[in-house]
Write a structure and sequence with these properties.
This protein has 287 residues and is mainly α. 75% of the residues lie in helices and 0% in strands. The protein has one domain.
Length: 287
């Protein structure tokens, strides 16, 4: 029963993140990315700060000054600098397909920087995952979009964030860490101000989209935390790849996108590689 509960929360989380991405993409058609980052960052920081205080969590402690937390905070600021412009420029299906490489990059980073033992099978899966990513990005070929490089940089910093999260102190609550993550997102938006058009006063529809995006993003994050704390992680974690299924559905039926076969093939290879890598990690941990 706990596994089923965890799976349902993971599916809810991934669906929420896919919807949030789509809402941000719609907002990017009329508002500058810098403004979107500032508004969403401030709204999310306020939301999670209030929740943290409501649940009796501290917003400041000495744990915040530790190196892993500062690295995580820096990665949280740099990731949206590249990820959101890529979201505005690339089809949602393509961007989400590239995003699926994050777990593989985390495994690579854990082997290179955290001293985690990785056998030849997982190295082979990591290599296959990067082949899948090259099929999607298609560097030097017809159909190559330079915005895909922005997406790759964004995924790289998201992977660094996840690596740092593995070693930050457990005394730091999830709500507090998330509040800081949204706060540095607003800082990232301020950094991008000189590179985009001046801010515009949002229409009532755009304010509604901002509010909806913040609420859905908050629910998705809370559901993700509930999923990771329920049941067997080996059963629940692979369902994070359902985000691509939700994104493809939204992209095709609501955004009018038509993903090409290279994108679908590359995404399939990345997901297969990620699932195999995760399975091997569980086998190694069991041993």
């Amino acid at each position: 029963m706990e596994n089923l509960k965890g799976i349902l929360f993971m599916l809810l989380s991934m669906a929420g993140f896919a919807v949030e991405d789509a809402l941000i993409k719609v907002l990017s058609t009329t508002l500058p990315i810098s403004q979107i980052l500032v508004v969403l960052g401030m709204a999310g920081a306020l939301l999670f700060a209030v929740l943290a205080l409501f649940w009796g969590e501290k917003l400041y402690s000495e744990d915040i000054k530790t190196k892993p937390f500062m690295i995580r905070l820096g990665a949280d600021m740099l990731a949206p600098l590249f990820f959101l412009p890529a979201l505005a420029l690339l089809p949602l299906a393509t961007l989400t397909s590239i995003l699926q490489a994050a777990p593989i990059m985390v495994t690579l980073g854990a082997a290179l920087f955290l001293g985690q033992s990785v056998g030849w099978r997982r190295w082979s899966a990591i290599f296959a995952g990067f082949i899948g990513m090259l099929i999607i990005v298609r560097p030097g070929m017809e159909g190559f979009d330079a915005a895909a490089l922005l997406a790759l940089l964004g995924v790289t910093f998201l992977s660094i964030r996840d690596l740092a999260t593995r070693v930050i102190r457990t005394e730091l609550s999830t709500l507090t860490v998330t509040a800081y993550s949204f706060a540095v997102m607003a800082i990232a938006g301020c950094i991008l101000i000189p590179f985009f058009d001046p801010f515009l006063w949002p229409t009532p529809r755009e304010w509604a989209l901002f509010a909806l995006s913040t609420c859905i993003g908050g629910i998705a994050y809370a559901a993700f935390v509930k999923a990771t704390r329920a049941g067997d992680v080996a059963v629940i974690a692979p369902f994070r790849y359902s985000r691509l299924v939700f994104a493809l559905f939204i992209a095709v039926f609501f955004l009018g996108e038509r993903p090409d076969w290279q994108t679908l093939l590359g995404a399939s290879i990345i997901i297969a590689s990620g699932l195999y890598t995760f399975w091997r990690e569980q086998v190694a941990a069991h041993r």
